[in-house]
Amino acid sequence: MRNRKDWDTYFMDIAYMASTRSQCSRRHVGTVLVQGKKLLGTAYNGAPMGVPDCSEAGCMLVEEIELKVVEDKEEVIRKQRCIRTIHAEQNLLLFTDREDREGSTVYVTDQPCWTCANMLANSGVTEIVFHRGYPKDHEKVSSLMLARGITFRRMEAYEPPAGTISEVIN
Ligand SMILES: [Zn+2]
Ligand SMILES: [Zn+2]
């Protein structure tokens, strides 16, 4: 028998394909909306249509301060983040219909940030599957999904298709 891809792998592969369209040099995120086994939409992070994107205008960076507790000591970590792009998950919500989303699954290459998770929690989606972790928002996003009864799971053993991961600055 031919080694056929399971559905999780199939849809996550498509999310990774979508992520290659991103022009942000800091983060390439792709996502797909699936109802049953039907693909209803794909999206990636990018500037609004008709507006110069990160490859043309450069990333629009803001500095954020994060508090992290390491060995009982609070550490202040400064991080830069690009705010030029609309996040992949938000674009997916902008380009799909509420009706289509009821009871659907979102596959996303990266664990959603807090804002995207909050929007997804109110979008009709009932399952979120991601691959790469995002430790910063993990706890609050997980408890939000639990409170909303949304299945939230990571594909641990998954390997993205060759050529879909590009160098990003972190
Ligand atoms: Zn950018
Ligand atoms: Zn986000």
Give the DSSP E fraction (strand runs of 2 or more residues): 25-35%
Low-confidence region ranges:
none
Largest beta-sheet characterization: 5 strands, mixed
Helix content: 25-40%
Bound molecules: zinc ion
Mean pLDDT: 93
Radius of gyration equals: 16 Å
The beta-strand count equals 7
The number of helical segments is 6
The sequence of SSEs as H and E is HEEHEEHHEHEHE
* Largest sheet strand order: 2-1-5-6-7
The end-to-end distance, rounded to whole angstroms, is 42 Å
* Protein structure class: alpha/beta
Overall, the morphology is globular
Domain CMP/dCMP-type deaminase: 6-152
Organism: Paenibacillus sedimenti
Pfam family, one: dCMP_cyt_deam_1
GO cellular component, one term: cytoplasm
What does this structure look like?
The protein is α/β, with parallel strands linked by helices. It has six helices and seven strands; from the N terminus they run αββαββααβαβαβ. It has helices at residues 7-19, 54-57, 88-94, 98-101, 114-121, 135-148, and strands spanning 30-35, 38-44, 61-70, 73-82, 105-110, 127-132, 151-154. The strands form two sheets. The chain has a five-stranded mixed beta sheet with strand order 2-1-5-6-7, sandwiched between helices. Strands 3-4 form a two-stranded antiparallel sheet. Helix 5 runs parallel beside helix 6. The radius of gyration is 16 Å and the shape is globular. The model has no long low-confidence stretch (mean pLDDT 93). It binds zinc ion (2 copies). One zinc ion (ZN) is lined by residues 87, 89, 112-113, 115-116. This is CMP deaminase. Pfam families: dCMP_cyt_deam_1 (PF00383). Residues 6-152 form the CMP/dCMP-type deaminase domain. Its cofactor is Zn(2+).
